[in-house]
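Q: What would this chain look like folded?
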Amino acid sequence: MTKVPRGFGHNVFLNCPFDRDYEPLFEAAVFTIQIAGFKPRCALEVSNAGRARLAKIMDILSECRFGIHDISRTELGPGKLPRFNMPLELGLDLGCSRWGIKHLAEKRILILDRSLRRHHRSASDLEGQGLVHHANNPQQLVSRIRDWLSTESAGSSIPGGAYIYKRYRLFRESLPRLSRVMKLSHRQLTFPDYSTIVRVWLEEYEG
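A: My prediction, written as structure tokens:
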């Protein structure tokens, strides 16, 4: 019998752009996942060095019951090529949920885009997957993620989107101070650093 990975039911894989323009959305998403009682995971846990990067990302995917995939940046970049990382990781997660070992059939996947019909032009096969949009708005993204996690996990104790966003705004005000306490710069936080600061703040103000 294949052993279910530790934390599988509370791990949420977050697949999205990691550039500066998307940063407000990314940080709001990480906060929402954590205040809802889940653990965010993503490709930023994996070093860019070495040939095993994709294999390590697939390992993380197999450890997460929930997957949030934002395909809003599948467009031509400065190099005249589309960005394939987000659709690639989405495809891996969909395949994992369909053909993976037994517990992976429990996977739940949320697909996000910046507008509701945009994917028709680039990935029409996603029609019927329940894709939702966020209009590049962090507050709207918070509500989308909150509502989905509450529905898919039957988590009636998860606070509402408006409450979460209000707490997120308060957290942002505390971020520079908490970063200094941890001897970090709030402008140069790694994903693990940021996740830790969110956890510390939640333990202090929400515990």
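The mean pLDDT is 87.
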